[in-house]
Amino acid sequence: MTNDYVWQEDMKTSSDAKTTTVGTIDDEILAFTAGKDLVLDLQLAESDCIGSAAHAIMLSKMPVNPPVLTTEEAAAVCKELGTIRKSVLERAFVIEAADQDVHLTVERKLTEALGDLGKKIHTGRSRNDQVAVDLRLFAKQALLELIEDSADLAEALTRFGETHQKVPMVGRTHMQPAMPSSVGLWATSYAEAVLEDIQSLRLVYELNDQCPLGAAAGYGVPLPIDRQLTSDLLGFARPLHNVAHAIQARGKLEYQILQAMGQLMITLSRVAQDLMLFTLPEFGYFTIPKVFGTGSSIMPNKNNPDVLELIRSKAGLVLGYGSAVGHILHAAPGGYNRDLQDSKEPFLEGLATTRASVRILARCVAGLTVNEDKLRGAFDGGVFATDAALALVAAGMPFRDAYHQVKANLADLDNEDPDAAIARKTHLGGTAGLHFGLYADRIASTRGFVEKGRTHFDHAVRRLLS
Ligand code: ARG
Fold first, then answer.
1. How confident is the model over 388-435, as pLDDT tens digits?
2. For 261-291, how does the pLDDT look when each residue is reduced to its tens digit (9 = 90+)?
3. Mapping DSSP to helix (H, G, I), strand (E, B) and coil, where does residue 170 land?
4. d(Cα 82, Cα 102) in Å, to the nearest integer?
5. Which residue's C-alpha comes closest to atom 2 of ligand 1?
6. CA angle 408, 413, 417 (to 5 degrees)
7. Ligand 1 within 6 A of CB of 347
8. Could you tell me the domains of the chain?
9. What are the Cα distances from residue 399, in Å, to 172, 391, 426?
10. Which atom of ligand 1 is nearest to the CA of 250?
């Protein structure tokens, strides 16, 4: 992260000013208002080229005489946008302070290369709908990647659970030993949570999959633009309908996506927390692969679970990013307000942080080893107490009487067999009633969803910027 947004000593007086595409702006004010866009917008640059190409093609089909852009001119604009996109991918694309943001950089570059054609690209659009469409195009790809990585995590948890489905593990409430459980039940409880979090991500994916372009500043334009066409060209499911909503949905959408990611991060953090506990020497149930630990600079004996600790803190960060966006938004009146620009950083950070966390936890889970002796050794008689009471119930005793009888004779349970105990819970979703295929099916359908979305998007982009 650069310090571009911070006031610098050499911006001495307010008479220092920069000539920008949209007028002259005092240096310090420019630095403050552009903020981190000079850096953050690099992430949106590819999307800006894609969105601009669709807009150019739509302009060339607009029924006005003379046309704003001819078919050939639109093709020239798209070709140049392809060149700019290439420079983005090669990391040669730079947003100058005088550009303020990526949108004016792309317009400047088009104008430098194509003269008047570049000056026409902004016909019938505003940076307000432009940034909104850039963010949605970016988020679409990021969400597909995140959903795919989350499916990998669900799969790693399911595999781990299936492999060790018959290994007994003490089930806990209040962290205290409670009832017989299994490694299979523990692992797939989190696989199922991740799959539900994926459902939330798919829901926000659908919300994101709507095109704001053509809303312009938020009030449309007195030109016969074809918003359906732009939306189709970009591979969106549909245009957002109301043009004011198309602009005001910015920030709200980011908040929803951050909330969905917050759900996932809560799940991740709880897995991490469990693993930190169950890999303590005092427990020793599981062992984390050595590469996931880091040493200490002073204590030669250390191998700390830093990755897991950081997943826990990153959950806090992502929840905080969501909260930041909610706070930015709740007081903003209708219409575009520059406040919205500040939702960009928490949003982009949230996407990157969540994805990195999901990926590394999936690797960690895939590499876990199980120490069966430790898991079995953790059972004491008390863990079987509820099962014993229910056995008396099955033989006809009222539950409360059975409860008291077992409670008075807990020492009798010291030789119970954990393997037999977990084999007895054969009902749906119990230790011996887990259907791993259910998870496999949901993981496969998630992968199908990602594949379909990605193919559709890549196809649209290839048509625009071949
Ligand atoms: N960089 C700006 C943002 O992220 C682009 C939109 C600027 N629009 C405006 N009316 N100043 O919000």
1. 999 999 999 999 999 999 999 999 999 999 999 999 999 999 999 999
2. 999 999 999 999 999 999 999 999 999 998 9
3. strand
4. 15
5. 341
6. 160
7. no
8. 14-123 (1.10.275.10), 128-215+248-377+433-465 (1.20.200.10), 381-415 (no CATH)
9. 22, 10, 21
10. 12
* 207: nearest Cα among 149, 163, 168, 246: 246
Which residue in this structure is represented by tokens 């199980």?
370
This model's pTM is above 0.90? yes
CA distance 159 to 152: 10
Whether residue 239 contacts residue 299, with contact meaning beta carbons closer than 8 Å, is answered with no
Nearest in space to 57 (alpha carbons), one of 237, 243, 245, 214: 214
How remote is the CA of residue 132 from the centroid of ligand 1, in Å?
A: 9
Give the nearest ligand 1 atom to 217 CA: 10
- Backbone phi, psi, residue 380, to 5°: -120, 175
Q: What's the token pair of residue 146?
A: 């995140």
105 lines ligand 1 (CB under 6 A): no
447 strand-pairing partners: none
H helices, E strands: number in the chain: 17, 8
Please give the positions annotated as active site: 174, 296
Regarding the beta carbon of 127 and ligand 1, being less than 6 Å apart is answered yes
Give how far Cα 322 sits from Cα of 146, 209, 264, 348, Å.
Answer: 17, 20, 13, 11
**pLDDT averaged over every residue in the chain:** 95
Written as one letter, the residue type at 227 is R
pLDDT digits over 311-360, tens only? 999 999 999 999 999 999 998 999 999 999 999 999 999 999 999 999 99
Residue whose Cα lies nearest atom 5 of ligand 1: it is: 127
The rounded Å distance from CA 29 to ligand 1 centre is 14
* Ligand 1 closest atom vs CA 344: 4
Scanning the structure block, which residue is given the tokens 């570059």?
A: 109
Residue 284 half-sphere exposure, CB side, CA atoms within 13 Å? 9
Judge if the beta carbon of residue 340 lies within 6 A of ligand 1. yes
Q: Is the pLDDT of residue 8 over 70?
A: no
Q: Closest Cα partner for 288 from 410, 371, 393? A: 371
Cα-to-centroid distance, 341 and ligand 1 (Å): 6
Q: Express each pLDDT in 433-449 by its tens digit.
A: 999 999 999 999 999 99
Which of helix, strand or coil describes residue 300? coil
